[in-house]
Specification:
By secondary structure, the protein is mainly β. The chain is 14% helix and 36% strand.
Length: 178
């Protein structure tokens, strides 16, 4: 009877040790802290062909931010592949900057007035942890829209361009604005 209790107790301890060790092997090497987008700004209306700036600021406690993901949503679902902008080494812990989106298509197509697109932007670190997603609704209009000055912290000094958004929303049946 004592041997049976000892065997049960010993098996339980060995199982707990093995379980604890195996969980440690599956943890991300970076510590698991996801980046955080702390501030963001973009205008909400513009003409097809305008060059837009999507301003973002992000922090990562681990200092291993790798890339920015941009997804274009139309009618609530993604219609275009995710576009990636890789960050320079100096932006891996903290960055403040903008993504440039040239809204015109490369094939000369047009987009109907009042077409609405929402850009979703998030940041990934080297371990694959994703930040919060920030959504930027945008509507294509025909009138000239005056761009307001961006709010703080994007109005201070020289804000660097982080990269280009390479999403072509024009052409085909997708430009019909359904």
């Amino acid at each position: 009877m004592r041997a049976r209790k000892f065997f049960w107790f010993f098996s339980l301890v060995v199982s707990l040790i093995f379980l604890n060790l195996s969980q440690g092997w599956t943890q991300p090497k970076s510590g698991g802290n996801a980046p955080v987008i702390t501030h963001s700004f973009a205008i909400e209306k513009g003409r097809y062909g305008d060059v837009l700036k999507i301003f973002i600021e992000a922090d990562d406690l681990d200092g291993d931010m790798l890339r920015i993901a941009t997804v274009a949503y139309r009618n609530g679902s993604p219609r275009h592949p995710t576009d990636w902008v890789y960050l320079k080494p100096q932006f891996q812990r903290h960055f403040i900057g903008y993504l440039q989106w040239n809204t015109f298509g490369s094939r000369g197509e047009r987009i109907r007035e009042w077409t609405e697109i929402t850009l979703g932007v998030s940041v990934f670190d080297k371990a694959g942890n994703e930040s919060n997603e920030v959504l930027f609704p945008f509507q294509f209009v025909s009138e000239v829209v005056r761009n307001p000055k961006p709010p703080a912290p994007f109005n201070e000094g020289n804000i660097p361009r982080l990269g280009y958004i390479n999403i072509n929303v024009g052409g085909g049946s997708e430009s019909e604005g359904h």
